[in-house]
Design brief:
The complex is a heterodimer of chains A (117) and B (112).
Chain A (H helix, E strand, L loop, with lengths): L3 E4 L2 E5 L4 E7 L6 E7 L6 E7 L4 E4 L2 E6 L4 E6 L8 E7 L13 E2 L3 E6 L1
Parallel strand pairs in A: 2-11
Antiparallel strand pairs in A: 1-3, 3-8, 4-5, 4-9, 6-7, 7-8, 9-10, 9-11
Chain B lengths: L3 E4 L2 E4 L4 E8 L5 E7 L6 E7 L2 E5 L6 E7 L2 E7 L7 E8 L7 E2 L3 E5 L1
Parallel strand pairs in B: 2-11
Antiparallel strand pairs in B: 1-3, 3-8, 4-5, 4-9, 5-6, 7-8, 9-10, 9-11
The chains are: A mainly beta (117), B mainly beta (112).
Chain lengths: 117, 112
């Protein structure tokens, strides 16, 4: 089955600086890669995702890059703000390769992002 | 925030109790999922339902029994749990064949 590794487990950056979180996956058939943000006491919130036919995707201050050959993808947050402090999870799934049209996600262990004022 | 709701938000139960967790999605989706989130472990997929049929059971012990009576509701029936089953149980939904999954706030379960 799929295995997703995520690094670092904790990341502390100064407010205004950029943050980068990296993930690798093992199953070359995976083709959907979402990122979730989880704040204390809440469920994970989808913040951005990318499919295997795209190398990069941006949404305001966040961007995700995907290298299918190397089987790794990264989350980039620019101009970090205090409200960006949370735990971030990467995930992978078979997406359109799943038989039933619904496929569970395999998650990384999470990165605790701390924005220092 | 209100697209996927879960009740109760907190539950404490003894090892011999029987309880149920409820999930409801208000997004018109046709697939629903149960995940388990334990401390220091990745979120683990437990069950997948698509069009009210279970399509995946991720080697979950039989003391966890899911039920999906319709596309908007998902239950997780619990009986004779172990202390190591204490965790945050998350429900999610999606609109297959689209991939985006949306999570509820979770039920914090403590088994004593």
């Amino acid at each position: 089955g799929e295995n997703v590794e995520q690094h670092p487990s904790t990341l502390s950056v100064q407010e205004g600086d950029s943050a980068v979180i990296k993930c690798t996956y093992s199953d070359s058939a995976s083709n959907y890669f979402p990122w979730y943000k989880q704040e204390l006491g809440k469920g994970p919130q989808l913040i951005i995702d990318i499919r295997s036919n795209v190398g990069e995707k941006k949404d305001q201050r966040i961007a995700v890059t995907l290298n299918k050959t190397a089987k790794h993808f990264s989350l980039h947050i620019t101009e970090t703000q205090p409200e960006d402090s949370a735990v971030y999870f990467c995930a992978a799934s078979l997406g359109e390769h799943s038989g039933g049209g619904a496929d569970g996600l395999t998650f990384g262990k999470g990165t605790h992002l701390i924005i220092q004022p | 925030e209100t697209g996927v709701t879960q009740t109760p938000r907190h539950l404490v139960m003894g090892m011999t109790n029987k309880k149920s967790l409820k999930c409801e999605q208000h997004l018109g989706h046709n697939a629903m999922y149960w995940y388990k989130q334990s401390a220091k472990k990745p979120l683990e997929l437990m069950f997948v339902y698509s069009l009210e049929e279970r399509v995946e059971n991720n080697s979950v012990p039989s003391r966890f029994s899911p039920e999906c009576p319709n596309s908007s509701h998902l239950f997780l029936h619990l009986h004779t749990l172990q202390p190591e089953d204490s965790a945050l149980y998350l429900c999610a939904s999606s609109q297959a064949p689209l991939y985006e999954q949306y999570f509820g706030p979770g039920t914090r379960l403590t088994v004593t």
